[in-house]
Amino acid sequence: MKVNVPVLVPALLGLCAMVASPVFGQTTPSMPHANPPYVLSVFATAPTGLSAPDDIAVMDRHVWVGYGDNHDPGGVDGLSSQVVEYNMDGGVAHIYTVRGHVDGVKIDPITHKVWTLENEDGNTRLVIIDPKTQQTSLYIVGTGPHGGGYDDIAFRGCKVYFSASNPLINPNTAPAIVSVQLRNGSVDLDGVLDGNANAINIPMDTTVKLNLQDPDSMTLDPLKNLVLDSQGDQQLIVVSNPGSSESARAAVAAVLSDFRWADGRGSRRYLFHYLHRGLYPFCGQGSQPSFQVEQERLGARRRVHRR
Length: 307
Hints:
With 307 residues, the chain is mainly β.
Protein backbone atom coordinates (compact mmCIF):
# COMPACT_ATOMS: atom_id res chain seq x y z
CA MET A 1 0.00 0.00 0.00
CA LYS A 2 1.45 3.36 -0.99
CA VAL A 3 0.78 6.21 1.39
CA ASN A 4 1.55 9.90 1.28
CA VAL A 5 3.25 10.87 4.50
CA PRO A 6 4.10 13.84 6.80
CA VAL A 7 7.80 14.41 7.54
CA LEU A 8 8.87 17.03 10.09
CA VAL A 9 12.13 18.04 11.71
CA PRO A 10 11.83 20.51 14.63
CA ALA A 11 12.91 20.33 18.27
CA LEU A 12 14.37 16.91 17.96
CA LEU A 13 17.28 18.37 16.06
CA GLY A 14 18.02 20.75 18.87
CA LEU A 15 18.30 17.98 21.40
CA CYS A 16 20.42 15.91 19.06
CA ALA A 17 22.78 18.75 18.25
CA MET A 18 23.17 19.80 21.84
CA VAL A 19 23.98 16.50 23.50
CA ALA A 20 24.74 13.99 20.79
CA SER A 21 27.12 15.84 18.54
CA PRO A 22 30.21 14.49 20.35
CA VAL A 23 29.00 10.92 19.74
CA PHE A 24 28.09 10.64 16.07
CA GLY A 25 30.65 10.06 13.37
CA GLN A 26 33.69 9.93 15.61
CA THR A 27 36.56 7.50 15.31
CA THR A 28 37.84 8.18 18.83
CA PRO A 29 35.35 8.23 21.72
CA SER A 30 35.01 11.29 23.92
CA MET A 31 32.83 12.24 26.82
CA PRO A 32 29.44 13.71 25.87
CA HIS A 33 28.52 17.15 27.16
CA ALA A 34 25.44 19.30 27.56
CA ASN A 35 25.09 23.05 27.43
CA PRO A 36 23.81 24.82 30.59
CA PRO A 37 21.33 24.64 32.20
CA TYR A 38 21.36 20.95 31.26
CA VAL A 39 23.70 18.47 32.90
CA LEU A 40 24.90 14.94 32.19
CA SER A 41 25.93 12.40 34.80
CA VAL A 42 26.64 8.67 34.70
CA PHE A 43 23.48 6.70 35.40
CA ALA A 44 24.85 3.16 35.10
CA THR A 45 27.65 1.11 33.62
CA ALA A 46 27.45 -2.08 31.60
CA PRO A 47 27.56 -5.38 33.46
CA THR A 48 30.84 -7.23 33.06
CA GLY A 49 31.30 -8.57 29.54
CA LEU A 50 28.54 -6.50 27.93
CA SER A 51 29.15 -3.74 25.40
CA ALA A 52 27.57 -1.62 22.66
CA PRO A 53 24.44 -0.34 24.46
CA ASP A 54 21.87 0.76 21.91
CA ASP A 55 18.15 1.21 22.48
CA ILE A 56 16.59 2.21 25.79
CA ALA A 57 13.13 2.26 27.37
CA VAL A 58 11.78 3.43 30.73
CA MET A 59 8.76 2.10 32.64
CA ASP A 60 7.63 2.06 36.28
CA ARG A 61 10.95 3.38 37.57
CA HIS A 62 12.90 0.75 35.67
CA VAL A 63 15.25 1.41 32.74
CA TRP A 64 15.72 -1.20 30.01
CA VAL A 65 18.79 -1.24 27.79
CA GLY A 66 19.72 -3.57 24.93
CA TYR A 67 23.42 -4.48 24.63
CA GLY A 68 24.32 -5.60 21.12
CA ASP A 69 27.84 -6.72 22.08
CA ASN A 70 28.94 -5.94 18.49
CA HIS A 71 27.36 -9.15 17.22
CA ASP A 72 26.38 -9.60 13.58
CA PRO A 73 23.23 -7.49 12.87
CA GLY A 74 21.87 -10.29 10.71
CA GLY A 75 22.33 -12.91 13.39
CA VAL A 76 24.51 -15.13 11.19
CA ASP A 77 27.10 -15.60 13.95
CA GLY A 78 24.50 -17.40 16.09
CA LEU A 79 25.45 -15.42 19.19
CA SER A 80 23.18 -13.94 21.85
CA SER A 81 22.76 -10.45 23.30
CA GLN A 82 21.47 -9.14 26.60
CA VAL A 83 18.66 -6.85 27.67
CA VAL A 84 19.45 -5.33 31.06
CA GLU A 85 16.78 -4.08 33.44
CA TYR A 86 18.09 -1.34 35.75
CA ASN A 87 16.60 0.16 38.88
CA MET A 88 16.45 3.94 39.05
CA ASP A 89 19.58 4.00 41.20
CA GLY A 90 21.53 2.39 38.34
CA GLY A 91 21.65 -1.04 39.93
CA VAL A 92 20.98 -4.14 37.81
CA ALA A 93 17.58 -5.71 38.53
CA HIS A 94 17.71 -8.51 35.95
CA ILE A 95 19.54 -9.56 32.78
CA TYR A 96 17.66 -11.27 29.93
CA THR A 97 19.49 -13.17 27.19
CA VAL A 98 18.04 -13.08 23.68
CA ARG A 99 19.31 -14.92 20.61
CA GLY A 100 20.80 -12.61 17.97
CA HIS A 101 21.83 -8.97 17.88
CA VAL A 102 19.38 -6.93 19.98
CA ASP A 103 18.40 -3.54 18.58
CA GLY A 104 14.92 -2.12 19.16
CA VAL A 105 13.62 -2.04 22.76
CA LYS A 106 10.16 -0.60 23.44
CA ILE A 107 7.47 -1.01 26.11
CA ASP A 108 3.85 -1.74 25.26
CA PRO A 109 1.94 1.02 27.12
CA ILE A 110 -1.12 -1.23 27.45
CA THR A 111 0.37 -4.55 28.65
CA HIS A 112 3.62 -3.07 30.09
CA LYS A 113 5.54 -5.88 28.42
CA VAL A 114 8.94 -5.17 26.88
CA TRP A 115 9.28 -5.79 23.14
CA THR A 116 12.77 -6.37 21.71
CA LEU A 117 13.79 -6.84 18.07
CA GLU A 118 16.87 -8.86 17.19
CA ASN A 119 18.81 -8.98 13.90
CA GLU A 120 17.85 -5.73 12.20
CA ASP A 121 19.67 -6.62 8.96
CA GLY A 122 17.67 -9.82 8.32
CA ASN A 123 16.33 -13.00 9.95
CA THR A 124 14.62 -10.79 12.53
CA ARG A 125 13.24 -12.19 15.77
CA LEU A 126 10.86 -10.56 18.24
CA VAL A 127 11.22 -11.40 21.93
CA ILE A 128 8.57 -10.09 24.34
CA ILE A 129 9.56 -9.93 28.00
CA ASP A 130 7.02 -10.03 30.83
CA PRO A 131 8.67 -8.07 33.68
CA LYS A 132 6.26 -9.52 36.25
CA THR A 133 7.07 -13.17 35.56
CA GLN A 134 10.47 -12.65 33.86
CA GLN A 135 9.26 -15.00 31.13
CA THR A 136 9.97 -14.40 27.43
CA SER A 137 7.97 -15.20 24.27
CA LEU A 138 9.63 -15.63 20.87
CA TYR A 139 8.08 -14.64 17.52
CA ILE A 140 9.80 -15.25 14.20
CA VAL A 141 9.66 -12.18 11.96
CA GLY A 142 12.19 -13.14 9.28
CA THR A 143 13.47 -11.13 6.32
CA GLY A 144 11.15 -8.67 4.61
CA PRO A 145 10.42 -7.98 0.91
CA HIS A 146 12.99 -5.17 1.09
CA GLY A 147 15.69 -7.81 1.66
CA GLY A 148 16.51 -6.69 5.21
CA GLY A 149 15.12 -7.01 8.70
CA TYR A 150 13.25 -4.81 11.18
CA ASP A 151 14.87 -2.30 13.49
CA ASP A 152 12.51 -0.43 15.79
CA ILE A 153 9.02 -0.52 17.28
CA ALA A 154 6.31 2.07 17.86
CA PHE A 155 3.01 1.68 19.70
CA ARG A 156 0.15 3.92 18.55
CA GLY A 157 -3.15 3.24 20.27
CA CYS A 158 -3.90 -0.45 19.84
CA LYS A 159 -1.59 -0.83 16.85
CA VAL A 160 2.09 -1.76 16.62
CA TYR A 161 4.54 -0.73 13.89
CA PHE A 162 8.03 -1.86 12.86
CA SER A 163 10.59 0.05 10.79
CA ALA A 164 11.93 -2.04 7.90
CA SER A 165 15.72 -1.64 8.00
CA ASN A 166 18.67 -2.46 5.73
CA PRO A 167 16.82 -2.48 2.39
CA LEU A 168 18.76 -4.23 -0.36
CA ILE A 169 16.79 -2.69 -3.24
CA ASN A 170 17.32 0.72 -4.81
CA PRO A 171 14.94 2.37 -5.35
CA ASN A 172 13.22 1.00 -2.29
CA THR A 173 9.73 0.10 -3.47
CA ALA A 174 8.98 -2.14 -0.48
CA PRO A 175 7.33 -0.98 2.77
CA ALA A 176 9.59 1.08 5.06
CA ILE A 177 7.03 0.94 7.89
CA VAL A 178 4.77 -2.05 8.56
CA SER A 179 1.94 -2.75 10.98
CA VAL A 180 2.22 -5.86 13.14
CA GLN A 181 -0.16 -8.59 14.26
CA LEU A 182 1.03 -11.48 16.46
CA ARG A 183 0.00 -14.96 15.28
CA ASN A 184 0.96 -18.13 17.22
CA GLY A 185 4.70 -17.64 17.36
CA SER A 186 4.96 -15.61 14.16
CA VAL A 187 3.85 -12.17 12.99
CA ASP A 188 1.69 -10.84 10.18
CA LEU A 189 3.06 -7.66 8.60
CA ASP A 190 1.15 -5.17 6.44
CA GLY A 191 2.77 -2.28 4.60
CA VAL A 192 1.97 1.19 5.93
CA LEU A 193 4.49 3.42 4.17
CA ASP A 194 6.44 2.44 1.06
CA GLY A 195 10.07 3.43 0.78
CA ASN A 196 9.27 5.38 -2.39
CA ALA A 197 6.10 7.11 -1.15
CA ASN A 198 5.29 10.69 -2.15
CA ALA A 199 5.70 13.37 0.51
CA ILE A 200 5.77 17.17 0.81
CA ASN A 201 9.11 18.82 1.45
CA ILE A 202 8.26 21.48 4.02
CA PRO A 203 11.09 24.00 3.42
CA MET A 204 10.60 23.86 -0.36
CA ASP A 205 6.82 23.30 -0.30
CA THR A 206 7.15 20.77 -3.09
CA THR A 207 6.05 17.19 -3.57
CA VAL A 208 8.94 14.75 -3.55
CA LYS A 209 9.30 11.01 -4.02
CA LEU A 210 11.15 9.34 -1.18
CA ASN A 211 13.76 6.63 -1.60
CA LEU A 212 14.37 5.45 1.95
CA GLN A 213 17.63 3.50 2.02
CA ASP A 214 18.21 3.44 5.77
CA PRO A 215 14.99 3.28 7.86
CA ASP A 216 16.17 3.09 11.45
CA SER A 217 14.71 4.35 14.73
CA MET A 218 11.01 5.14 15.08
CA THR A 219 8.84 6.72 17.76
CA LEU A 220 5.73 8.85 18.32
CA ASP A 221 5.85 12.62 18.54
CA PRO A 222 3.68 14.52 21.08
CA LEU A 223 0.85 14.66 18.52
CA LYS A 224 0.90 10.84 18.15
CA ASN A 225 2.42 10.96 14.68
CA LEU A 226 4.82 8.19 13.72
CA VAL A 227 8.34 9.59 13.28
CA LEU A 228 10.80 7.49 11.30
CA ASP A 229 14.51 8.31 11.14
CA SER A 230 16.01 7.27 7.80
CA GLN A 231 19.49 7.84 9.13
CA GLY A 232 21.67 7.45 6.05
CA ASP A 233 19.22 9.55 4.00
CA GLN A 234 19.31 12.39 6.55
CA GLN A 235 15.52 12.47 6.68
CA LEU A 236 12.79 12.31 9.29
CA ILE A 237 9.49 10.97 8.02
CA VAL A 238 6.44 11.98 10.06
CA VAL A 239 3.33 9.89 9.37
CA SER A 240 0.17 11.49 10.68
CA ASN A 241 -2.30 8.82 9.55
CA PRO A 242 -0.51 5.48 9.14
CA GLY A 243 -2.15 3.38 6.45
CA SER A 244 -4.33 6.18 5.11
CA SER A 245 -4.08 8.01 1.80
CA GLU A 246 -4.10 11.50 3.30
CA SER A 247 -1.47 14.02 2.23
CA ALA A 248 1.99 14.06 3.75
CA ARG A 249 4.75 16.46 4.69
CA ALA A 250 8.48 15.81 4.38
CA ALA A 251 11.67 17.61 5.39
CA VAL A 252 15.39 16.96 5.28
CA ALA A 253 17.09 16.68 8.68
CA ALA A 254 20.56 16.07 10.10
CA VAL A 255 21.86 12.54 10.58
CA LEU A 256 20.37 10.87 13.65
CA SER A 257 20.85 7.52 15.29
CA ASP A 258 18.26 7.12 18.03
CA PHE A 259 15.92 9.74 19.39
CA ARG A 260 13.21 10.25 21.99
CA TRP A 261 10.87 13.15 22.71
CA ALA A 262 11.31 14.89 26.04
CA ASP A 263 8.26 14.78 28.28
CA GLY A 264 8.16 18.57 28.72
CA ARG A 265 7.87 18.43 32.51
CA GLY A 266 11.45 19.21 33.42
CA SER A 267 11.99 15.64 34.55
CA ARG A 268 14.83 13.26 33.76
CA ARG A 269 15.23 12.39 30.09
CA TYR A 270 17.43 9.56 28.86
CA LEU A 271 19.76 9.97 25.94
CA PHE A 272 18.97 8.40 22.62
CA HIS A 273 22.55 7.33 21.97
CA TYR A 274 25.05 5.98 24.44
CA LEU A 275 28.79 6.29 24.77
CA HIS A 276 30.84 3.12 25.38
CA ARG A 277 29.62 1.40 28.55
CA GLY A 278 27.97 4.43 30.13
CA LEU A 279 24.33 5.55 30.17
CA TYR A 280 23.68 9.23 30.71
CA PRO A 281 20.49 10.78 32.10
CA PHE A 282 19.85 14.15 30.50
CA CYS A 283 18.41 16.53 33.09
CA GLY A 284 17.16 20.09 32.89
CA GLN A 285 14.61 22.51 34.24
CA GLY A 286 11.86 24.26 32.33
CA SER A 287 9.37 22.92 29.83
CA GLN A 288 10.03 25.30 26.91
CA PRO A 289 13.77 25.47 26.22
CA SER A 290 15.08 26.68 22.88
CA PHE A 291 18.07 25.16 21.12
CA GLN A 292 20.57 26.42 18.62
CA VAL A 293 20.77 23.91 15.79
CA GLU A 294 23.72 23.54 13.46
CA GLN A 295 23.02 21.76 10.20
CA GLU A 296 26.47 21.41 8.72
CA ARG A 297 25.44 19.74 5.51
CA LEU A 298 22.83 22.38 4.73
CA GLY A 299 25.08 25.18 5.94
CA ALA A 300 22.12 26.61 7.80
CA ARG A 301 21.85 27.82 11.37
CA ARG A 302 18.44 28.16 12.91
CA ARG A 303 16.78 28.41 16.29
CA VAL A 304 14.07 25.91 17.10
CA HIS A 305 11.70 25.76 20.05
CA ARG A 306 10.35 22.54 21.47
CA ARG A 307 6.59 22.58 21.57
